[in-house]
């Protein structure tokens, strides 16, 4: 009887230590096939080990698994390439909401035509803009003006949709699952290869692939093509959680605050970083309402204009409603086991407003954040809060109790949150009929 080969001994040793192994993809296919058959013969093919074999994507092993009709009770961990192939975009699921601050949208829409063509657009005109909008032909588009806002919303609440906040009216009247939000001072960005970044495809891909807020993957989003989970990432967590909010970034005029932009007036963002990551659970973040996408059906009631400062103006440095909104929706996502992603897609942000002129108006918000962030970091919701509406309702009570007396503007924000939930329910009951 001939002695066993070194390969046979190596496979035997691997079989004895399978419980300590998390990755087999480095093995040649013929070795992997032999190991799989010996694992079957030894009765050691557990659910965890089967997942490891499937994750190698080796054709011969996959064929054996299929031929033997071996199936997992739970959904198997799918490699990135297979997850990406499952992402499809149904144009009937997407609304693109555009906040209009200029009367002539011709050049803006023509720039975006190759990307927006075929999608339904909702344009909400800033109520303070008096001129009639100029819109080129060839778009599936609904335009909403101050008259429409006044018809749908009571006069006491219509003021919450002024300035940048007009975009939220578009969220109210949408009937579709996903919303992509952008302002009319944004142009398509180009990636490092010089290709135009398709914000629709990239945002919807972010939303339709899972997020990983519980355990951070150091190679960014493992569900993107060309990436995967790193060594040591628990297989029990690799299915992730549903992603409901995608926060894109800006090239050119980045989202700096007025003090930073005033001190560094020439500072611009010229780096296109081709990456997406999940914001970790319990990490707060400042959200911009420009270039975001979200699952309207799941977190729409938590995305609203609530915080208004006494000296607040109409340009981005002077508004805080989206920053506050980002804190609220992140707490909701953490509580409901939902995910938030940030990174691509980028847009090119054009100049608007003066950071110097806005400095005094924004300063109150800058100071307020030092108190607001710790509050949201420690805010815990009850197990009874199982929807976004319920989460927002519980937050209102906590805000009024802990911050309302010392900060009237936060008490007012809490009142606006109550009104938003009420308006959301009323409007949705009408538009979805």
Automatic annotation (TrEMBL):
It holds the Pfam family RGP. Keywords: Cell wall biogenesis/degradation, Golgi apparatus. It comes from the Eukaryota. One of its GO terms (molecular function) is UDP-arabinopyranose mutase activity. InterPro entries: RGP_fam. The keyword Cell wall biogenesis/degradation applies. One of its GO terms (cellular component) is cytosol. The keyword Ribosomal protein does not apply. GO terms for biological process: cell wall organization; UDP-L-arabinose metabolic process. Its main location: Golgi. It is found in: Golgi apparatus. Belongs to the RGP family. This is UDP-arabinopyranose mutase 5.
């Amino acid at each position: 009887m001939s002695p066993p080969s070194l390969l046979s001994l190596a496979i035997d040793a691997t079989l004895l230590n399978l419980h300590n192994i998390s990755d087999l993809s480095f093995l040649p296919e013929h070795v992997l096939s032999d190991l799989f058959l010996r694992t079957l013969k030894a009765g050691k093919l557990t659910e965890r080990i089967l997942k490891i074999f499937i994750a190698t994507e080796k054709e011969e092993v996959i064929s054996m698994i299929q031929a033997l009709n071996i199936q997992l009770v739970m959904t198997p961990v799918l490699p990135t390439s297979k997850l990406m192939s499952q992402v499809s975009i149904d144009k009937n699921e997407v609304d693109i909401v555009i906040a209009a601050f200029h009367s002539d949208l011709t050049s803006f829409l023509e720039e975006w035509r190759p990307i927006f063509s075929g999608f339904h657009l909702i344009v909400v005109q800033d109520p303070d803009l008096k001129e009639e909008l100029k819109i080129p032909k060839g778009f599936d588009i609904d335009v909403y003006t101050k008259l429409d806002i006044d018809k749908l919303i009571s006069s006491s609440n219509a003021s919450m949709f002024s300035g940048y906040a007009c975009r939220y009216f578009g969220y109210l009247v949408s009937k579709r699952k996903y919303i992509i939000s952008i302002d009319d001072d944004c142009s398509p960005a180009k990636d490092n290869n010089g290709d135009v970044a398709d914000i629709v495809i990239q945002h919807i891909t972010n939303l339709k692939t899972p997020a990983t807020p519980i355990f951070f993957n150091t190679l960014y989003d493992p569900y993107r093509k060309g990436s995967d989970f790193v060594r040591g990432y628990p297989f029990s967590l690799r299915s992730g959680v549903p992603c409901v909010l995608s926060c894109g970034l800006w090239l050119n005029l980045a989202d700096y605050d007025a003090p930073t932009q005033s001190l560094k007036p020439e500072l611009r963002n010229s780096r296109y970083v081709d990456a997406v990551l999940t914001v970790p659970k319990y990490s707060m973040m400042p959200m911009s309402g420009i270039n975001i996408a979200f699952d309207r059906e799941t977190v729409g009631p938590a995305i609203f204009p609530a915080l208004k400062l006494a000296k607040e103006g109409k340009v981005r440095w002077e508004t805080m409603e989206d920053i506050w909104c980002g804190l609220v929706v992140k707490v909701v996502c953490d509580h409901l086991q939902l995910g938030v992603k940030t990174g691509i897609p980028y847009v090119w942000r054009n100049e608007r407003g003066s950071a110097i002129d806005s400095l005094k108006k924004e300063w109150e918000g800058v100071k307020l954040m030092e108190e607001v962030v710790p509050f949201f970091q420690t805010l815990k919701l009850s197990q009874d809060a199982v929807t976004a509406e319920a989460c927002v309702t519980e937050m209102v009570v906590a805000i009024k109790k802990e911050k309302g007396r010392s900060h009237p503007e936060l008490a007012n924000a809490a009142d606006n949150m109550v009104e938003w939930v009420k308006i959301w329910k009323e409007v949705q009951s009408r538009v979805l009929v």
